[in-house]
Design a protein that fits this description.
This protein is mainly α. The protein has one domain (about 1-85). The protein has 3 helices and no strands. It has helices at about 5-25, 30-50, 60-85. The longest helix has 23 residues, at about 60-85. The radius of gyration is 12 Å and the shape is globular.
Length: about 80
């Protein structure tokens, strides 16, 4: 996902964070800025998890990058929800 640049990180991260917040039911508590942060951090988490399972995350394309961000964002929000309770 490094080839997309900072604008790509913001767009894909924002979309992934927004969809993850819909899945986890936290959308009402998050604004666009937090959705972007959750999506970008989710991309890092998703990449680490997939590398752990020997999945080549580099050069996977736009859709694969988005799904990686979405996976990590859902996991991140699940952890945040568990800690808050």
């Amino acid at each position: 996902m490094l080839g997309l640049g900072i604008i790509g990180w913001i767009i894909i991260g924002g979309l992934a964070g927004w969809i993850a917040s819909k899945i986890q039911g936290t959308d009402a508590q998050q604004g666009i800025g937090l959705n972007i942060v959750v999506g970008v951090i989710g991309g890092l988490i998703g990449g680490i998890i997939l590398k752990f399972f020997n999945v080549n995350v580099e050069g996977g394309g736009l859709i694969f990058s988005f799904l990686t961000c979405l996976l990590g964002a859902v996991i991140l929000l699940a952890i945040v929800k568990a800690v808050r309770k």
